[in-house]
Amino acid sequence: MHCFKPCLRFAKSTAYCYFSSNRSFSSHNLETAGPIASKLNSRSVVRFRGLDTVKFLQGLLTNDVRKFSEPMGENERTSTLPAPNLPPMYAALLTPQGKFLYDLFLYKPPKPDAKLDKSGSGPGSDPDQSFELFADVDATVLDELLVTFKKYRVRSKVEIENVAKDFSCWQRYGGNLPEKSSSIEEPEAASVGWGAGVDRSGESASRGNNLGWQWFNDPRLDSLGFRGIFPSDIIPPLIEADKETDEQNYLLWRLQKGVAEGSTEIPKGEAMPLEYNLAGLNAISFDKGCYMGQELVARTHHRGVIRKRLLPLRFLNDSGEEVEQKVAPGSEVIDTASHKKAGTVRAALGCRGLGLLRLEEAFKGSGALTIQGQENVKVEAVRTDWWPAEWFQEYQQYSAVA
């Protein structure tokens, strides 16, 4: 039995067609279906603008935002070519007690001298442009996120705006997609958009300021593909007409990788950042100094043992076959040997899911875990290939002591 196959929406020019499930992707063929792309309607875009933008965010977020204000090197300042855009950053805002609130992908738009002018023949110029950063955020909590950031603004010279109508978030992923965006491995991705060296397509480089965007490697994991913010009135470059798909396929892709996203999958006000693997996803800097909620995160990282972690899950029947649409987020995972709760399902789609499980129970073996009230549904925790080796060593040492 195969996993749930969501019906896909493919874009052809301005019309959309709906194909039957035999044209859909499942967890089995996403690895060979790519590259595909999804517009992320679950995400919105916020703009931070003003002289104190970096200082303001540096005191709040888990990652080191100062890299966006670092001066360019000598070679970049003297080059006649547009300067390369800085890669995006993944970060989180925590409560004062160190619990997760919101995740953000931060982008610094290219400076005027990093863009080509409208003729495409040289760098542009706009000396009056203010410093700004764009953030890709969870759309379901957009209003309260704006209220929260404005509450902490006090006298900081920074404007915080909802620009979701003007910009959209996209993900490019799937199999057959290079994991590095370089001129050798992915020449198209490395050359499309402002500030990407030489724009070989020549198309976006001569059509004005609103096309100053490009694809970047996902800052969490290279294997997740490419991510970007683009103007809402365009289709991003490198998306073939028959390869724009429903966002559920991106969700399925993330579930297989064991990566949660947003304030629903990472419960707002409850989740411990290290249990949801945010350190391994490049969302936390342990060298930047103080930020809101930093004390608990740093203490746990340096002294504590992470007994629970977010893991990819597969849902199976008694015969070991994958079962479809049987498990809902919030379901409890039970250890059949001890009859105790081993964890909770945080996200689910078809036969795949994410679960926050105690590591002691997670890897006991096939058939050891089931869903509360659905004993015929077995839960298999999957070891991800991107986990640092020390995470398994911590688990083994803890198990030996226990």
From TrEMBL:
UniProt name for this protein: CAF17 C-terminal domain-containing protein
Cell compartments where the protein resides: Mitochondrion
Keywords, alphabetical: Mitochondrion, Transit peptide
Gene Ontology CC terms: mitochondrial matrix
GO biological process, one term: iron-sulfur cluster assembly
Pfam families: Beta-barrel_CAF17_C
Domain named CAF17 C-terminal: residues: 307-388
